[in-house]
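ok new one. same drill as before - structure tokens go in, u give me an amino acid for every spot. 353 of them this time. try not to just spam alanines like last time pls lmao
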């Protein structure tokens, strides 16, 4: 199955361009009579507009694909929320300096640009905070416009309604659409990274998990490869449906035996992989325990497994790429597993042998 990739590079660079455009608009207002008063107001506007240059560059080079799939790390959430807050506060600060309150009320339409970003990437509670905050600000600007006495109440109300619709209605539509798209992407990602028979991670899912959660530089990481012995003969003698039932039973026993102590994946037809935050000795003991737990003579089709174990120490990995570390650890465990097969099956071997 091929994953549909969201064009996140286009999205983030377009967002960065919009940030720079908003900064340019703010800078232009410093040369208008309706814009900020001379003095500290123009200094504030100039500083805010200048800040859009480093912020725009940062946004352009910050990957967004994990945020789209809702796999938000704490750091990812912090970045997304910080950007929305920065944009809202920056636009609000610039508009508050305007001499012409009606011009400031028109300027609140820029909140719609921030709303598009928030609707796509920000968690729901922060989208709600954005809507409430901008709605209050627009209402205040409308009241200040009315206080200037240049427009009647109906005219100000019409301007307020236009600003509220432009800032919030598009966001509401986009948020609803984006939520449905994200649900579809989540379902697709789940299908692409999990084994449909056992519900365990598949190899692609294990790689994805490693990208997010595996940090071999922080602690030793252990790997166990389990391969069912003579599984082909089970399929030949009892049929593939019986073989599937055996695989489901093995997956269930692995979950019950290991719980949250290991990440479990089905990486091949009759092959399973375990990843543990443990050294080689502990992983070897776990492999022995699993080998015993998977064999039950009372089963309709008793099975045995051959297990290979390996581990990567922190001194060995440094700041290594997590997926590369995963591949190396599994490769070593696979070598040890074949040694167990060659030694007569239903055994555990560790790498190096």
């Amino acid at each position: 199955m091929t994953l549909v990739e969201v064009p996140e590079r286009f999205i983030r660079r377009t967002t960065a361009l919009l940030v720079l455009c908003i900064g340019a608009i703010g800078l232009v207002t410093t040369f208008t009579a309706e814009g900020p008063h001379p003095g500290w107001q123009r200094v504030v506007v100039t500083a805010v507009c200048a800040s859009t240059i480093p912020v725009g560059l940062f946004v352009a080079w910050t990957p967004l694909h994990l945020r789209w799939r809702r796999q938000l790390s704490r750091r990812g959430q912090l970045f997304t929320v910080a950007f929305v807050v920065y944009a809202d506060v920056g636009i609000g600060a610039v508009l508050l300096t305007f001499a012409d309150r009606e011009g400031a009320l028109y300027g609140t339409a820029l909140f719609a640009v921030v709303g598009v970003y928030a609707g796509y990437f920000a968690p729901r509670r922060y989208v709600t905070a954005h809507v409430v905050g901008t709605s209050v600000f627009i209402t205040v600007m409308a009241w200040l416009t009315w206080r200037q006495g240049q427009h009647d109440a109906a005219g100000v109300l019409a301007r307020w309604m236009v600003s509220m619709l432009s800032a919030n209605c598009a966001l509401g539509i986009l948020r609803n659409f984006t939520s449905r798209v994200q649900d579809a992407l989540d379902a697709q990602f789940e299908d692409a990274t999990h084994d449909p028979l056992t519900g365990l991670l598949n190899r692609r899912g294990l790689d994805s998990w490693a990208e997010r959660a595996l940090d071999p530089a922080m602690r030793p990481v252990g790997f166990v490869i389990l391969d069912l012995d003579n599984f082909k003969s089970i399929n030949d003698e009892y049929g593939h449906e019986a073989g599937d039932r055996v695989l489901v039973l093995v997956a269930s026993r692995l979950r019950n035996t290991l719980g949250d102590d290991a990440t479990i994946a089905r990486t091949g037809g009759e092959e399973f992989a375990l990843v543990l935050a443990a050294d080689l000795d502990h992983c070897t003991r776990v492999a022995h325990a699993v080998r015993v737990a998977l064999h039950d003579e009372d089963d309709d089709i008793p099975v045995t497994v051959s297990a290979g174990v390996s581990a990567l120490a922190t001194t060995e990995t440094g700041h290594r790429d997590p997926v590369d570390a995963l591949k190396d650890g599994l490769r070593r465990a696979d070598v040890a597993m074949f040694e167990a097969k060659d030694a007569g099956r239903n055994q555990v071997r560790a790498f190096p042998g």
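The mean pLDDT is 87. and btw DSSP finds 14 helices and five strands in the chain.
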